[in-house]
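Allow me, if you will, to draw on your knowledge of protein folds for a short while. The matter concerns a single protein, recorded as an amino acid sequence and a row of backbone structure tokens. Could you please explain, in whatever detail you think fit, how the structure tokens follow from the sequence? I remain grateful for any guidance, and I place the record below:

…
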Amino acid sequence: MATLDHQEKVKFWQAQDIGGVDLLRATYFTHTFSRHVHNGYAIGIIERGAETFYYRGATHVAPAGSVVVINPDEVHTGQAVVTEEGWSYRMLYPETALLQQAAQSAFEGWRGIPNFTNPVIWDEALVPLIRRLHVTLETSASPLERETAFISTLVQLIARHATGWVEPRHLDGSTRSINWAREYLEAHFDENISLEQLASIANLSPYHFTRTFSQVVGLPPHAYLNHIRVERAKNLLTHGFPIAHIAAETGFVDQSHFTRRFKRTVGVTPGQYALNSKNVQDDLA
């Protein structure tokens, strides 16, 4: 009887010609993604095994053959349902503006950003389209082929499963005060910020601030700060800065802490991200 290879395999790259879209192809067994958010969408297919993840207050299971779509700024996790089987998947992470542009170009009168109400989608026609797009962005050097596959696949995904305009959440007093604290975190992410500082900015008690921040943002303050730091680190990695330098510049305790946090959020190490954060066309030229 053949034994199952339990080695985790990850490949990450970027398509700079397609708006700098991040792409990931991976097989995980024991790796777990901590609660995190993406500034844009997370769109992919499960090719083997099954993934389970927390999203919008519930736990979901995505088996092989399903499509997974996570909306921007939504807290979620990710891990294998059965670690002995693991799960293999292909993911792409387009910025919000790319899907909005695709919707507006294809559908007259489209307003707002596409919203996907179901994170796990069963669509036998869509799965091969997403797989073909992912492979094209990994292997093809033709700009026309790459751009055509990208826009046509996004339009199909939106047409079949997205809703349009989403009303913005009403900003009551508590939400506005939390936004002040978020702005402070984004401006001072490299500093050792205290709970007292943030609560004072929001004009709330530390306890009330922590509870309200988690309700509004979906993450506790320290986790949101780590999200900001990881996003800044990704940008610095694409520009070739040394990992040790980035760890210090983004406020992590040390390089090992930075590496652990980065992998739990992104799925690859900072070194892997830096090595592959180039347009695949560079390798094919």
